[in-house]
Amino acid sequence: MNHVIVVGAGPSGMMAAIAAAKKGASVTILERMDKPGKKLLITGNGRCNLTNITPLAGDTFRGASPEFVHQILLQFSVGDTLRFFWELGLLTRERDGYIYPYTDQAGSVLEILLQEIRRLGIKLKTRELVTDIRQSDGRLLAVTETWSYPCDRIILCAGGKAAPQTGSDGSGYMLAGKCGHHVTPVYPALTALKTGGNLAPMLAGTRNYSALTLEIEGEKERKESGELQWTEYGVSGIVIFQLSRYAAAALAQQKYVRLHIDLMPEYSSEEILALLRKKDALSDGLSAADLLTGLLKKKTMDAFLKLLGKKPFAKGRERFYEDIIALIKDLTLNITGTKSFDMAQVCAGGVPENEVNPVTLESRKLPGLYFAGELLDVDAVCGGYNLQWAWSSGYTAGTHAAKSLRC
User: Which of 292, 325, 328, 349 sits at 20 to 30 Å (Cα–Cα) from 18?
Assistant: First the structure.
């Protein structure tokens, strides 16, 4: 008896199934949606950022400890990922460390994985929602709405709560709970932030390269730099996504969260002041708009002047310089919320690392149950790292599940 059930046909599930089958296990994948890989198809805006060859920074992965994450990544590294897809016939291309399929189409990655699944004789059953996992007659039982599947090992890869339209609706957490596991609080991560006030609607549609600082309860916690995108509801863009995990967690704890934005990080306040004074001296009587032309985008300039009132020079030109520089160098927004799980790329939180074996990813609560992918309390910054976690954790769980059966 060497039957392995994989719950979920996302990236980690398909990798787990392939790894287990290559070790000699008989594998069946149970997928709740009508087609496999729906979340994979939307990664990287449909281009599928497979992984990243840039060396990891200290905070690339969040949630679980770096030691836990790195131990899994060592078992199936970035190099292993590239080799795996190369051997399956998938060409890739690199852009600033980001690795994409050569076709720039996520569909190519999905079809390559499905070809391997078919080649290995892995059974793939769609429209099968697993509702329970339990022990039965010395084996495990995966119970769906229509059937019960006896097996020897189960790998739970049902995803988190981000992008529920692709099948990640949180049902995996329910299954983990039924098996005796706890789930740390789950928040949207890699998502946009909502802000108070009327500035965001005034700037909606504009983009600024900015340096950002996230403040939580008066303490400046995180810093990021990159292109900021203004929306009707607040702020977005990759630079915001990188901060959103921390903002979401703080807001859930009812903490006060603010965002400080430096719209001209390449210039100091003193340099901007000198430039304004120089322009003013060259042409007497310049309007406020004339002074700011060349420094700010027109939409940004118009919004700032509206904030300063109809008579920006009412308290003198030097006071105007102070006020406008304060807006440019430390524009402060109250963060009122995040976009929902529907709009999040991944979620933070999940099954904690102390409830799984750090080498095999086997459950410490139910022998024979393994975890992979987003169900575990591991998430990462943008750039292909979350998919690398899916490949690495899927391979690890699949390999060790099969090895434990002495296939």
Answer: 349
